[in-house]
Amino acid sequence: MADVPEYLRLLNEIDETTHGFRKKVNLCSWVEFRLMAAAQADPQLRLQDLSRQRWIYPQGVGRIARDLQRRGLVKVLSDPSDKRARNLLITKKGLKLLDHCQAVLGELLAAG
Question: Which domains does the chain have, with CATH numbers?
Fold first, then answer.
């Protein structure tokens, strides 16, 4: 049997980690976690920038942002410099969930 290319091995590891994440955190999907973590890291980041950075269609980012807002995890705000653009603000409830998600991810990565 041929050796598995490094990129496939890494993709398999990522799949296993995200599957473990979804099993342990049923309140937040992997994509939601990635968007919230990026918004927390840079509150000035616009939804369109999140879309490009995370390789998600803009409509998908908008749908996810609306769902997160409906659940009280983020607020979708107009960008002060461009009223057409939108930014995500993580709420206290969202920060609590984000902390939990980061702890779960840390456990999964430590478990290897």
Answer: 6-111 (1.10.10.10)
- The Cα–Cα gap between 21 and 93 comes to 19
Which residue do the tokens 């702890």 mark?
103
Rounded Cα distance, 44 and 40, in Å: 9
pLDDT in tens, 45-79: 887 777 777 677 778 788 888 999 999 998 888 87
**N-term to C-term CA, the chain:** 25
pTM: 0.70
Beta bridge partners of 88: 76
- Pick 101 or 2 by higher pLDDT: 101
Can you name the residues that pair with 86 across neighbouring β-strands? 78
H-type helices in 25-91, by residue range? 30-41, 47-54, 58-70
